[in-house]
Design goal:
The structure holds 2 protein chains of 2 kinds. By secondary structure, chain A is mainly α. In chain A, helix 4 packs across helix 8, helix 8 crosses helix 10 and helix 10 runs antiparallel to helix 13. Chain B is built from 8 helices and 20 strands. Classes of the chains: A mainly alpha, B alpha+beta. At the A-B interface, helix 9 and helix 10 of A face helix 2 of B.
Chain lengths: 301, 370
């Protein structure tokens, strides 16, 4: 910061060429650190997606054609599959918010030690295999499953209710699987909100609910957006749970892709579905990112 | 913001007790805050001063006791119905609102019409010298400006009681000194009853009408700054406020004796078994070397022979560490004259320290109230 003019012996004092070289070397070293990751991304992401794009534009006879995309527009069944996918994803996200937000709020108001203990209840299922959890729901929910048996024994209802192999089962399973993805980012954003803000609002005359909606809730929105987005995007491509608990009645895009390959060995059709799903996901992410930015413009951390 | 002294409310705290895991955070505290006064709760960290403020605000529920604002019993009133302004230590400004929305929050809650609201917000911001800052975001403000916004938000709805929880602790020293004076002026102008919490004794002495010294959840002394500093009720207060060394003293024939010699004191000694003479660095005087003061001299000056241990230059003043003959370490502070310490005694030299009878204060050797 000293205002020193270049001295006559600039060659000895200057050192600028050497310093620039050092900086360049440092940057190259940093870049070197991430090169394995870059390589992996290239091999298992960029190349397959590129291939996917390529295959989706090949017709049955191997020449360039748009027939895979045309089929999606022409056939009603495809439209219904996309509709189901979005309905399931949106509903799952909505139920997750409904259950997860109060839970995350509860966690954020606990002393940190207790909160960490309670977080284990969220993480424990997270560490268990997804397939195991999905089949566990099947055991619980099926016609002669635990829930129906107990409820009939207790006289809550007389006939076994249909919980699985339909939309209800799919949603129950998916909400269970997805909940941690919402709660974790939400909890972390909530626990960074200054607790004194609620006190300040109360001190200034706001009733507890008014204080919550005017201070805590707006500040928790970025976390809520982030969590909901993760859940929604994961739901869009979800396969195992709807396949097991939906019992063939809830057909989502991922399942259609699987059947296109396994049943019809039609890679082009499967690829085209994958591309459309990818484009939609990217579009949603893009819109959401703009939303989040608007949020940040309005203040926040 | 007109003169509103008549609107201020007295606060009456009676027998307020709060225990955490068997420990008394507040131990049957009785305290009367007068209408319109600036009262400071002063104490070390963990003394219970903040707990008491949180009880006033309604954020901490005490085990028992009574709390009245004026004639109204409020001990069970929830915070949002207490109608008092509060400045938080962390300011607790709403980060997602601009300055004007922060300041206008209490008015909006109270359903004030928009036009009147804008007027009041502007007036409050002018009061804290932040006129024209309404559109700014909170993150664009400096620490001192945030402090002012927090203050504006706390006074904009003209509460009759204002609470402040160490509001200046996050500011640097120069700004803090200026804000102390500003806060005091603001209080004089608005006239609301103010309860201020701090652990900084100088801040307390500078700003307060009265100071309540608190330790271990108990009220140690309540008095004006002069009383607290010059007539401490016990050893804790004498030790906590200002610097002081202590010498054990006894009473015989109605006179105070220290180290076998009679002592001229300002007031009659307190009624206690164990007494201590309070020796404050800035009240002690260098009387020259021990050899030079052989004569009896002025009876109004108490003399303490000592040996110089260290001499420290501190710019505006020097600090001389000395050891009395009985081994007690103490210090003497005085201004540096003629820009040099050369005239002062050297380390190891024998000196005599003088303490004027009017500065000789004897306190009871107790850590708590009688």
């Amino acid at each position: 910061m000293n205002a020193v003019a270049p001295t006559p012996a600039a060659g000895e004092v200057d050192n600028s060429a050497g310093l620039r070289r050092d900086q360049l070397r440092e940057r190259l070293a940093l870049f070197g650190l991430c090169s394995p990751a870059l390589l992996i991304v290239l091999v298992i992401l960029v190349i397959p997606v590129g291939w996917l794009f390529y295959v989706s534009f090949l017709g049955a006879d191997g020449s360039f054609s748009l027939e895979n995309y045309a089929r999606m527009v022409e056939r009603k069944s495809y439209l219904r599959i996309f509709e189901t996918t979005f309905v399931v994803s949106l509903t799952t996200t909505a139920i997750c918010i409904f259950i997860g937000y109060p839970f995350a709020y509860f966690l954020s108001q606990l002393p940190r030690r207790v909160a960490n203990l309670c977080l284990i209840t969220v993480l424990l299922p997270f560490w268990t295999s997804l397939l195991v959890r999905t089949y566990a729901w099947l055991v619980l929910l099926q016609k002669r499953g635990l829930i129906n048996d107990w409820a009939i024994d207790l006289g809550l209802w007389d006939e076994p209710l249909k919980f699985v192999h339909n939309m209800t089962g799919t949603l129950i399973g998916m909400v269970h699987i997805m909940l941690p993805f919402l709660v974790l980012p939400l909890y972390s954003s909530m626990s960074s909100i200054d607790r004194n803000l609620l006190k300040a609002a109360a001190n200034l005359g706001a009733s507890p609910s008014r204080a919550f909606w005017t201070t805590f809730f707006p500040l928790s929105l970025p976390g809520l957006f982030a969590g909901s987005l993760i859940v929604f995007v994961l739901c869009l491509g979800f396969f195992v749970t709807p396949a097991v608990l939906g019992g063939g009645k809830v057909i989502m895009v991922s399942m259609k892709i699987a059947s296109n390959i396994e049943l019809f060995v039609n890679w082009g059709a499967a690829s085209a579905l994958g591309v459309v799903l990818l484009v939609m996901t990217v579009a949603i992410l893009w819109v959401a990112a703009r939303f989040l930015k608007l949020e940040q413009l309005g203040g926040g951390h | 913001m007109s003169e509103r002294n008549s609107d201020a409310l007295p606060i009456s705290i009676r027998g307020v007790t709060k225990t955490y895991a068997g420990m008394h955070a507040l131990d049957a505290v009785d305290l009367e805050v007068r209408s319109g006064e600036f009262l400071t709760l002063l104490g070390p960290s963990g003394s219970g001063k903040t707990t008491l403020l949180m009880v006033l605000a309604g954020f901490t529920r005490p085990d028992r006791g009574s709390l009245r604002f004026g004639d109204r019993e409020v001990i069970r009133t929830p915070p949002h119905q207490r109608d008092l302004g509060m400045v938080f230590q962390s300011y607790a400004l709403f980060p997602h609102m601009c300055v004007a929305d922060n300041v206008g929050y209490p008015l909006k809650i109270r359903g004030m019409p928009k036009a009147e609201m804008a007027e009041r917000i502007e007036a409050a911001l002018d009061t804290v010298q932040l006129g024209g800052f309404g559109e700014r975001g909170i993150s664009q403000l400096s620490g001192g400006q945030r402090q002012r916004v927090a203050l504006a938000r706390a006074i904009v709805f003209e509460p009759r009681i204002l609470l402040m929880d160490e509001p200046l602790s996050a500011l640097d020293k120069k700004l803090r000194d200026r804000m102390q004076i500003e806060l005091r002026h603001l209080h004089d102008k608005l006239g609301m009853t103010t309860v201020y919490v701090t652990h900084d004794q100088r801040e307390a002495l500078t700003m307060s009408d009265r100071i309540a010294v608190i330790d271990h959840g108990r009220l140690m002394q309540l008095g004006t700054p002069e009383e607290i500093y010059d007539r401490p009720a016990n050893r804790f207060v004498a030790d906590f406020i200002g610097e002081s060394a202590f010498l054990p003293a006894t009473v015989s024939n109605g006179r105070v004796h220290c180290a076998g010699q009679p002592l001229a004191t300002r007031d009659a000694p307190p009624d206690a078994e164990q007494l201590l003479v309070m020796l404050r660095p800035e009240r002690l005087r260098l009387l020259g070397s021990a050899a030079a003061s052989g004569s009896a001299g002025d009876v109004q000056i108490n003399r303490f022979p000592a040996e110089v241990e260290d001499l420290v230059y501190q710019g505006d003043s020097f600090l001389l560490y000395a050891r009395l003959d009985d081994g007690t370490s103490l210090s003497v502070r005085d201004v540096v004259r003629r820009g040099t310490l050369d005239d002062l005694p050297k380390v190891g030299e024998r000196i005599t320290l003088g303490l004027h009878a009017g500065d000789t204060v004897v306190v009871a050797d107790r850590e708590g109230p009688a």
